[in-house]
């Protein structure tokens, strides 16, 4: 499986919520923490959590995340990675 990063969340709990949503819809994904501090701080780019999905499921994953934002299941504070 080839994974491609598609979304950045700045909140660890929200990243895990996105992961659960994707897995419930049969989309393989991983969350990579880019935290550089040993302390649980959520300060801008210092607490990025990158969500990567199976390349074959990119369109479905992007649509699910967009719907989750529209439904306020996750906050709009994260961002999609440029293609």
Automatic annotation (TrEMBL):
What sequence ranges are listed for the domain DUF2007? 3-68
* Coiled-coil regions listed: none
UniProt cross-references to Gene3D superfamilies, sorted A to Z: UreE, C-terminal domain
Pfam families (alphabetical):
DUF2007 (PF09413)
User: Can you name this protein?
Assistant: DUF2007 domain-containing protein
Q: In the record, what lineage is assigned to the organism producing the protein?
A: unclassified sequences, metagenomes, ecological metagenomes
């Amino acid at each position: 499986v080839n994974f491609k990063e598609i979304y950045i969340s700045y909140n660890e709990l929200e990243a895990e919520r996105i992961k659960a949503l994707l897995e419930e819809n049969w989309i393989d994904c991983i969350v990579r923490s880019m935290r550089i501090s040993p302390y649980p701080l959520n300060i801008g780019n210092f607490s990025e959590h990158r969500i990567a999905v199976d390349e074959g499921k990119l369109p479905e994953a992007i649509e699910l995340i967009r719907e989750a934002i529209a439904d306020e299941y996750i906050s709009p504070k994260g961002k999609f990675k440029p293609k």
